[in-house]
Design a protein that fits this description.
Structural class: alpha/beta
Strand order of the largest sheet: 2-1-3-4
Number of strands: 4
Number of helices: 4
Largest sheet: 4 strands, parallel
Distance between the termini: 15 Å
Number of domains: 1
Length: 128
């Protein structure tokens, strides 16, 4: 019996990580077919309740494609996003959701290959 590809929700940022995701498509780089993206202005805008809602709706994993130090909205974006992830991990534990199902990595605007590598690795991890 063949394994089902995990359903992953990606929160991507409109000016930084979204162009990398688009570039991955243009370059015909392959990553799991069940990856959905939701664009946000800044990764620190993602709310814990959005992440938990994604799990309630049947997503197997949530990936935050963070701005890193390139954020044009807030120079403390990385720290704020990391704090949101940490708080959400605690909420996930309370609900019995393994924290490994939420991942964050900085994806720059030209990092298509890095995005694909992250998605493939995350999908493999979720499939185990």
């Amino acid at each position: 019996m063949e394994k089902k590809a995990p359903k992953i929700l990606v929160f991507s940022t409109e000016k930084i990580s979204d162009p990398a995701i688009d570039l991955a498509g243009l370059l015909k780089l392959h990553y799991p077919p069940i990856v959905f993206t939701m664009e946000v202005p800044c990764s620190s805008a993602v709310k814990s309740k959005w992440i938990l809602h994604a799990f309630d709706q049947g997503f197997d994993g949530v990936f935050i494609a963070a701005d890193g130090t390139d954020c044009s909205y807030d120079e403390s974006c990385t720290e704020k996003t990391a704090k949101i992830i940490s708080q959400t991990h605690e909420l996930m534990k309370e609900k019995g959701i393994p924290p490994e199902k939420l991942k964050m990595a900085a994806i720059c605007s030209v990092c298509a290959e890095s995005f694909v590598k992250q998605m493939n690795g995350f999908a493999d991890q979720l499939s185990e």
